Amino acid sequence: MSARNTALAALIACRKNDAWSDGVLKDYIRRDRLDSRDAALATRLCYGVVQNRLLLDFYLTEFVKGGLRKLQPVVQDILRLGVYQIVFMDRIPPSAAVNEAVEQGKRYANPRAAGLINGVLRSVLRAGKDLPQPSDLSTRYSHPEGLVELLRDNVGEDLLEPLLQSHNTSPATVVQYNPLKTTEADLCRRWDEQGVSYAPHPWMPGCYELSGTGNLEQMDTFRDGSLLVQDAAAKLPAVVADIEPGMSILDCCAAPGGKSFAAAMALQNRGKLISCDIHPHKIQLIEKGAERLGIETLTAQVQDASAFNPQWENAMDVVLADVPCSGLGTIRKKPDIRYKALKPLEGLPAVQRRILDNVCRYVRPGGVLVYSTCTILHRENEDIVDSFLREHPDFAAERMALPEGLGAGAVSRLTLLPCVHQCDGFFVAKLRKIP
Asked: What is the reported pTM?
């Protein structure tokens, strides 16, 4: 399979099964045994089409008589893939993009469709720089109108367009070194020997941005547990919790385990860490990750974060509550999120409050509760914390010790934006239980 065919197959699977492109693409790259170069191209093509779907359809509408909807869905997929290459990818010869799309039309549709694909894409080629440009932000950055308005309400007019633009960029691969397995110096030395391109993260100590690695899971530094793949924002809860060796920690919504692993590293394998998830099949995922990283303090178990466990009452020095959320801070990595229905998201704050009201009972007097989400919506972040503090006078907001390079000052809560902080959109708040 070529990279283009792998990308097309992934797009078809996402459309038919309402699946997430990141997971499908990973499976298909493995299935088609693509080398690192073709895997990178397939990823760029698949993500590029998903990220720019509304804009690509805007271009195509100019050249498809009767509109796109009259075409077979697979023909729409092929056309989008072709236009993306022509408009966005300078290193791919336009003739190659057209010819490959025509062959895909023959293979996945029929000869008549292949002829239409050829005609439409050559019309796009002739238009060149004279392609019409949309005036509205929704089409320009391929975010449905309802989502644009929701984001505008939460970040304001000045940050709206930079945020939308950032959602269509490729995030850096961020890893943190694992002090349970190695030192920073030794890890960097191995990367140098292997020709891995890396740079210290701009504001999170112990983290690095990698490039040109191919499949990270094939790197020996990954396999032997020397590194943890984790966005810098996702490491923040463990950082601001002021974890010390010997503490008892609960991560109540732990899967796939990244925040638990960061907390365990801070424990230095001395203390107790309980990592919970409501889904039994995810427990094994957490345990497998802990084993790879050499973590000995972690116990993973099934537990509904909204259901009370009396054994943990007033027993934890730190409770990490990274609650289920809309995930709108991760659009760069999961571009499909932008097209999901918004109405179901309105019920999330009630779920988040139930969890917070429950897990706060596990914090010992003087202990810390860290609330976090990977979204930027006020109703899931600041509003939850404010309502919680009003109804729980035994908790108080506490200023967080944030990395200096973040430049956020002394605050008790913080919202990170990809267009400002070069990380996932994220929210974190620190609450102290009054002794």
From this structure: 0.94
